[in-house]
């Protein structure tokens, strides 16, 4: 018997990671765990493993537009998750899509570096995201190194980067963990002055795909109707648990184990 699906659909515009740790596969797994359906539109193909990225190719604009519009014309999309874009042209493509669908909440994960440090786009891509994409997004989720690129503050603190970026976006979640502190401080900034700090225990090791997991989970919580601050907390809590249970599937970083909530307590 056919049963009409009641799961929220999340359109994911992200790159493909053949290791399965980050990118589209991370989006699909994280969204499935939130009770959502991921509809992936591939923006780029990468050559990477759990150690680092060695090359990438951004897909043609027409292909990405066709993928996204096929989903938008067929399904009732509840939210959009943005990941690796990789080029100025792809930023402009996504800007056009969001402008045509202003009713859709969008979570922007400004992917500019792989977990191993390799570049996934020139810095000018980050500047275009800041100027054109962040104003169309519900929330952006950079880690501190990405926030520094977006803010053009190479040594900036999270607070300093937020002050530079909040004129461009309504909500900004800057994730910690790139220093040596024993507790990780993730900071949610809201334009107008409100700030929420979420603290979690530092886990040993380094991880491939944590940012993708967080942003996708957040998009899923928003698609499920959760209020933004609560959705951020839920997404951070879930992501921490996937890192706690992470697996070493290759020679490099650990890969988050993105199990459904019932199995990730």
Automatic annotation (TrEMBL):
GO terms for molecular function: hydroxymethylpyrimidine kinase activity; phosphomethylpyrimidine kinase activity. Keywords: Kinase, Transferase. One of its GO terms (cellular component) is cytosol. Residues 17-253 form the Pyridoxamine kinase/Phosphomethylpyrimidine kinase domain. Signal peptide: none annotated. Pathway: Cofactor biosynthesis; thiamine diphosphate biosynthesis. GO terms for biological process: thiamine biosynthetic process. Transmembrane segments: none annotated. The keyword Kinase applies. Its EC number is 2.7.1.49. It comes from the Bacteria. This is hydroxymethylpyrimidine kinase. It comes from Pseudomonas syringae USA007.
